[in-house]
Specification:
Layout lengths: L2 H7 L3 H33 L15 H11 L10 H17 L9 E4 L2 E4 L8 H22 L3 H32 L4 H6 L6 H4 L1 H14 L11 H4 L9 H26 L22 H23 L5 H31 L5 H21 L41 H10 L12
Helix pairs in contact: 2-11, 2-12, 3-11, 4-5, 4-11, 5-6, 6-9, 6-13, 9-11, 9-13, 11-12
Length: 437
């Protein structure tokens, strides 16, 4: 049993309840601040002020919106399944809160005279708990779309199921190399393994795969296909209002905070101070309550990354989104795991020195770059029926275009009054014969 696990096992009940309350309040407050920051930052990107009326700098705007949702009329569609419709937002929000329980926020501290670790629970399979919570959370979205009794929420929920399955596989594969280097599935053990070097420098490809996967896992732009308000009205929560809609909103932003905190834990050293602050006073900034500041700073940086993506990139098409997950991230992650395994085996057997490994890796990268730039692109086969395009990209008529002759004009159809007069008078004023209609 690790030192962190021993400390958490001796926590009294009042301390456990205090940690649960602090984590819940922290996640709710971070949700309100993230919504405010998102509106302010995107407003600045788009040359507009954003919320600036409610409170200083508009800080109370998110709180006002939350109160507004609480007092809005709660409407349930006639065709909705009553109990599933009610439980779906609860199922979506609860795993988002539970998954943060395994995240280490800081080292050993003393709270009211009781030594403990700044973590709610330290499990030997902490990473699997995060993946399990992410898998359960999608059930709330799927059930919400099905229980609404409407086709558009159902389409949004089916998209979400396919999206989470696709990107959760890539996210799980990005964990494998981290587990191999840390030698444990415990989140506190992974943070401890990074005291001499962060994993995002050692495992850059795993870090990139995780960053892409966490955006797809949380249904955030440019991967917000389940909502897709331009084509699905509002996605899986179209028929929800009041507090039920607020729970879905809360779950999305809590998931953003959780995956950002997990990225900090896995790749950015967790609560360890960044270099060169970690060298001050023989690591004094890695003790006490200082690490909480470093952990929050790294997590906020990832949250800003979410906001930056939303204000910058347009939404992907659904086929592009699925191709990125299945045809790019998953196969390359498997190749990366094989490469990491071979490298670790060679280094452990001391068959290759670090200098030889760097030289060999540089040669391989140079060959790949040369192949990328020197091999000519394959030109697509021209279609005989393809419409030629002008320089601006618009279709132009073919050069041998022959305009068909104008067909002879048809005899105009007279109105009823004109036809009656013609029938009576005849073509030259003569009386028309009987039966000539």
């Amino acid at each position: 049993m690790t030192r962190t696990a021993e400390l958490l096992a001796d926590d009294p009940l009042w301390l456990i309840l205090l940690k649960v309350l602090v984590i819940f309040v922290f996640l709710v407050v971070m949700t309100l601040l993230t919504i405010w920051a998102e509106r302010r930052v995107i407003g600045r990107m788009q040359h507009r002020p954003g919320p600036n009326r409610a409170g200083p700098f508009g800080l109370l705007q998110s709180l006002a919106d939350g109160l507004k949702l609480a007092f809005k009329e709660d409407i349930r569609p006639v065709l909705a399944d009553k109990w599933v419709y009610f439980l779906a937002p609860v199922i979506s929000a609860t795993p988002a809160l539970v998954s943060f329980s395994v995240i280490p926020i800081g080292p050993e501290v003393t709270i009211f005279g009781e030594p403990t670790a700044l973590q709610l629970v330290d499990l030997p399979v902490g990473l699997l708990v995060v993946l399990a919570c992410a898998s359960i959370g999608v059930y709330g979205i799927v059930l919400a779309g099905w229980a609404s009794g409407s086709p558009y929420p159902l389409l949004g929920s089916l998209r979400s199921a396919a999206q989470v399955i696709s990107y959760e596989i890539a996210m799980g594969l990005s964990f494998v190399a981290v587990i191999m280097y840390a030698g444990t599935l415990s989140t506190s053990g992974i943070v401890e393994a990074q005291k001499d070097g962060w994993f995002f420098l050692l495992l850059p490809f795993s870090f990139l795969v995780y960053v892409v996967s966490m955006v797809g896992e949380t249904n955030r732009a440019p991967f917000d296909l389940p909502e897709a308000e331009s084509e699905l009205v509002g996605g899986f929560h179209t028929e929800y209002s009041s507090l039920k809609f607020a729970l879905f909103f809360l779950a999305e932003y809590i998931n953003m905070v959780t995956v950002s905190a997990l990225a900090t834990t896995l790749f950015l050293g967790g609560w360890h101070a960044p270099w060169p602050l970690s060298l001050i006073g023989d690591g004094v900034l890695n003790t006490g309550w200082w690490p909480v500041l470093w952990f929050l700073g790294k997590t906020v940086a990832f949250l800003f990354f979410f906001i930056w993506l939303r204000g910058t990139l347009p939404r992907l098409r659904y086929d592009q989104f699925m191709n990125l997950g299945w045809k790019f991230l998953v196969p390359l992650s498997l190749l990366w795991i094989i490469a990491v395994t071979v490298i670790r085996a060679l280094r452990n057997a001391e068959a290759v020195s670090s200098q030889q490994f760097l030289i060999g890796g540089g040669i391989v990268i140079a060959i790949l770059l040369a192949a990328t730039f020197l091999i000519p692109d394959r030109k697509p086969a021209k279609d005989a029926d393809e419409i030629p395009l002008a320089g601006s990209g618009y279709p132009v008529p073919p050069l041998d275009l022959q305009v068909p002759e104008t067909p002879p004009r048809r005899t105009p159809v007279h109105s009823g009054a004109d036809r009656t007069a013609g029938e009576v008078a005849g073509p030259e004023g003569e009386e028309a014969p009987h039966g000539n209609v």
